[in-house]
Each structure stands twice: as structure tokens, then as C-alpha cells.
């Protein structure tokens, strides 16, 4: 008997041992999925390797089934997964489950069906008394699905199921669920050599055979899809049965790749020559690639300086060595830009991995990478788990972006895991940005990363001229600042007159950010979250951007029942509406999560901008990153202050980054760029440094502030978030946790801040409190978290309160 170490897809803090017969012909390799028993159910497990023989007398359960013909991930990734589990305080099996494409986690469930005897029993007038609520569903539908049965968590419900099953009132069967992603196949027709006896063919068979042979000859194929023949000739499907029986054709099943690209991405030709700065960067980068060693680089290049071409040249050098390339971008929207550049250069070697793909597309792309068919993968943060056999280059574009941090479940940071994976694989990692995070710049200045700089735009084009407009001094409309100042409107008119394009930026969706009551002054809030509802006028609804709750826009005040409501604040929908009123002859479009509802729609909008079919594009931060629109000469920032007041020590840094990124869209072609930046705080350093394109000044201000306050990179943080449906239970759990942490931390190596309600104190119907752990080194913080996990607060132990550990938090809300 062979013993195996298995991580199960369940919240267990340790791995398990299972048995496998020595005489079984199936060889088992690390990275395979196994179906294993856990308690009284079957669950997916991931094979990590051999396990020590158990102690004498210890009973070891056997593996029920091997689910894969080949490993889903290379064995070299197992230390990577183990590190993640330890560092982020997350079960190892759940880490691997998160890493894999969806639809690959099978588990057994119980389906409950009502028997005829049960229907007679339960519908009798005297039976049963005190019936559970789910019995009515069972009587109506005749059965409960495995998902419905899993929701029956009370001991009484479980006991009733068992009792009624034994009495014959219910039929309980076990079935596998969750295993939904599978290869797609199609039936193909292969023409066989002519038979000597030549059986007589029906007319339909003769016609089908002629069409088949013609298709094979015209296209140089060895097989034709059956459905293609059926499209050419309606009688082909039935005729093929006769042709197969008579030995003229053979029907085979062939795997079909679900193509995530759809229409080919835009083509980007390679430049004829590089700039001197690009050459200098590659002179440092390429030797590290060829030496096959771990080498971290920070590529700080201003907007339009040609960072992407540096990525492409480094990728080509990596592929020439037979190694693979991983490219991470913060958002799916940016992935569509980057994929065009890489597809233009490397064609079918490119694969995509992100949540914008269907489950089947992700499944196919994963297997292309695992098999080595594709050697370049582009994706958002989850692509850091791509099953590359030998990654030689890892690129993190826009490395400063907080979207690389997962905010629920496994709260990992894609950029940090990219650096870790490069160090374990002996590969080069390039962190690229026009506005690097303060922490990454600090690492570069301390020598942890090697700094590469691109300080000039391609063709020595100038950076755009930024004009700051003070909204405090602007002429008011009904006592409020105007949506667009005079300078803003004049700049748009001049740009339209020159037949050039403009981008108008506001990082808020919707028409208005809140609805207010004229009688009591209260704002309409989401019933599930402590946030205001945003008006979306086109849909005539109020929407919560956190939980998705919607309400009709024509409601009465929920506080005083007055119908006298008005909208306040602003959003991209209102900006678009006002611009349409001001410039009725201009073609105006909007790019945000409400309009870019699919990859296809997103690409349609971008293509229209590139082809100069759009005069003014309004958008959120989706328009700020990675786009190259040569005919955009004006960028207007409607309100630069949106993120300045957030209770987050990174608020100024993020405001600067967003402003620099969006201003960088202007003047990337032959004509110089101009930026109109409206703000209530023109003297704030995030605005003045963005106006002057002065990253170094921003960095020095931020690093001095954080050194004085003891924030990263001079300290490490772990945020423990507790949430539950009962506010008092959450508060008590947070207070208990903080007291325990204070008693355990000792010697001042860890500072415990809180407990306190989270700034967003209620989300999706759950109250939220947090306890922040702070220390100069991360090891004492991890040690304290492990101790707290062993002695959780009563509410967490009882299951009424959930506790999540967020290591290196990016979002303090």
C-alpha cells in the first residue's frame, strides 16, 4: 500500500493521508486531483506527494477515484502553494482550489426524493406535527437538490432526513456536484480508402461522400467536422451512419478549443528601432534572462515611454531559451490592450487567463499552458497561478495598482506572489509602472530591486501641459460649483474645432452619487450596506455598487416618507448627458462598467476611438491605463478630489497615480497634449506633483510621512476583519479578540490598534469590525495570528461571526 499526502478542498489547516494500492496500474503524480472520502462524503483533494507510513493500528481511508489523466499543475508549484497558505493564513487545499479554474472541484452531495409512501404520510391530516419549512418545498417539487440539502445545517433537520429515510418516506441518493468544466469535443469524419467490394450507396450517401472528399481536397484536411457536413447538406447526418457501416468513413471524437480571443486583437507592428533608454534597460535586463537566474527589476517609465516594447523584447529572449512568460495586468480591461501587442508578436503561443472568460475557455487555456502548447500567458491577478512548467520571465504591468490585491477569500497580492514565484523558479521579474508604488520605489532605492528608467516619451514627445482649475473660485450655479468650468468647456470646443479627440475622466459611475430628501436631509442608503445608493438614470434605478441591491428611482424618503427627493453629486452618466447637451453635434461615448458589459463591447468602444469615430470619450479609471490614442490631445479631469478624503494612508499616493495615468493619455501622437484638472484642493501635494509630473517629490513627501507614522514600508500590517449579521455579536467578538491580542503581543514588538468599526461598517447585510496589527517585522505578526487562530473569540467559535486575516492590506475600508 502506498500512502499519499493530500490537500483537500475544505477549510482544514492541515493535509491528510490516504492510501493507494501498490498494484494499481495508474501511476500517481503530484498535481493530480483525487476524489477522497472526508467524513461521510466525497470531496476533491490535490495530490502533493508521498506521505509517511501511518502508525500501527491507524486506519487510513483509500482514494476513491483519480480524476485527471495528467497533473493540473507542475510539482514545482507545490512549495509555492505551501508558502501562500502559511503567509496568508489560508488552508492549503483552499489555496489550490483558488488557483485552479472554476468547475474543477467535485464533491458528493445528497439528493432527497419524496417516495409515494412519503407523500401519503406527509399529506395526511395528522402528520407530521411541527414540520420544518423545507418540507413544503419537498412536497411541491418532489425533491431537494444537493445544494438545498447542504443548506440544512440544523441538527434537527439532519436528524429528520435520516429518520424519514430509514422509514421509507424519503429516497436519499449520493451524487457528485461541482465538476462542471470538461473538454469540449466534436465528431469528425475521416474518409477511408476505397473498398474492393464497393457496396452499393444510396443517393444521399453518395452525395455526402462527394461533399466530404471535395472538402478534404480543397482544404488539405484529413478530417471534417460532422456538423460542417450537416450544414452543407441536410441529409448528411443520417447518411454518415450508412457510410460508416459500409466502411467508407470513420467517425472520431476530437477535442475542440474554445477560443477566448473571438475577433483577432488589434495588430501592433514592431518599431523599426528602439530608443537609447530602451536599449539601456534591455542591456541590463537581457543578460539576467539568459543567465536563467532570479533578478527583480523595477521599470519606472513615464507614460508613452515604451515600456511595452521592453516587455516584448525580454519575452522574445525568454522564449528563445525555451522558457515561458507570465504577464500580469491589474484589470481585464488592460489585458485586452496587452494581448494585442503580445499576439502581434507571438501569435498562437499566447494564452489568456482571467475572469472575463467563460469557465470552458479558462479550462482550455489552463490545459494549453499545462501541456506546454502555449508559452505566454496574459491575465489579471489570478494568472499568477498559471501552470507554466518553466517560467523564465514574469512581468507585472502597472505594478502599483491596488487591483492586484484580492479583497475576499484568499487575500493574496498578485504582484507579491509574482516576485515570490520568480524567486522560486529562478526567473526574471519586471515590475513596470509610470507611477510605481512607494513601497516598490523604496525597495529599489534600498537595492532590493534593480531600477530601470525611461524618462522620455517615444520620439521625445513632450508630456502634456497640465492646467489646474480651482473649483472654489469658479462661478457657482445655484450655489454649487459647475460641473464644467469655463476653461474646461473652451478647451473641449477648441479640440473639437481642430477635429482632435478628448478624454473626460471621473472616477464615479452612474448619474448622481446620492439621492437626498429636501424635507429631512437624509440620503437614501442601501438596505444591506452603510453606503448611499447611486442614481443610474438610463435604467431609472438606484444601485448599490457594493452588493448590487437596486431600487426604483422614483421612491419616497425611507426616513420621513416625503416624495420630495433630489439627486446630488455626480457620475460618468451625468457627465455624458451634460456633454451631449453642450455639444449636440459631437459623437460622445462612455466607457465604464455599465457600458463595457463584455469584452466584445469594450473592444468595440476602444476600436471606435482608434478609428476616430468618437470625439469625446467619458470614463472612469478604465480609460486611464495602457491606452494609446494618438489623436487624443485633451484630457479633462472633472473632479480630482474623489479619493483624497478616504480614511487610508495611501489616499494621496493613489490620487497622484490616477491623475498621472489619465494625464498620460494626452499628446501621444504628433500633436502636443493638454490637461484641464478641476479640483477643490489645488495646493494639495498629490495635485501639484501630478501637475508637474514630479514623481520624486511625491515619493519624498510620502516616505517622510510614513517614516514618521510607522506605516509601510517601515512597518508591516495585518488587518483582522470580523463580520456577522448581529451587530452586538460582532462588536463583542472584536473586543474579545483585541483583548487577547493585547495579552499575547508582549514586549512592544506588535501594536494592536482597535477594535473599531470598519469605515464601511455594514456590507451585504453583515456588520464589520476590525483589529489592526502593526509591527516592524512580519514574523511576530504571523506568530500572533497563529495564536489567535488557536483561541478565537466565542462568536467565531460558535459560527455566528466570521474572522478573516488580511496580510499586507491594500484596502483599509
Overview of this protein structure:
- The protein folds into seven domains: 98 residues, 3-Layer(aba) Sandwich (GIY-YIG endonuclease), CATH 3.40.1440.60; 71 residues, no CATH class; 73 residues; 184 residues, P-loop containing nucleotide triphosphate hydrolases (Rossmann fold); 165 residues, P-loop containing nucleotide triphosphate hydrolases (Rossmann fold); 61 residues, no CATH class; 92 residues, Ribosomal protein S10 (Alpha-Beta Plaits).
- It is 33% helix and 23% strand.
- The chain contains 24 helices and 33 strands.
- The strands form eight sheets. The chain has a seven-stranded parallel beta sheet, with helices on both faces.
- Helix 14 links the parallel strand 16 and strand 17.
- Helix 10 runs parallel beside helix 11.
- The protein is globular, with a radius of gyration of 31 Å.
Give the amount of beta strand, in percent. Answer: 15-25%
Mean pLDDT: 88
State the strand order across the main sheet: 14-15-13-16-17-12-18
Oligomer: single chain
The low-confidence parts are none
User: What is the level-2 CATH architecture name of the largest domain?
Assistant: 3-Layer(aba) Sandwich
CATH structural class of the largest domain: Alpha Beta
Q: Based on DSSP secondary structure assignment, what is the total number of beta strands? A: 33
Structural class: alpha/beta
- The number of helical elements comes to 24
Percent range of helical residues: 25-40%
Q: What's the CATH superfamily of the largest domain, by name? A: P-loop containing nucleotide triphosphate hydrolases
Number of individual domains: 7
How would a crystallographer describe the biggest sheet?
Answer: 7 strands, parallel
Task: Report, as a whole number of angstroms, the end-to-end distance.
Answer: 52 Å
Radius of gyration, whole Å: 31 Å
**CATH topology term of the largest domain:** Rossmann fold
Shape: globular
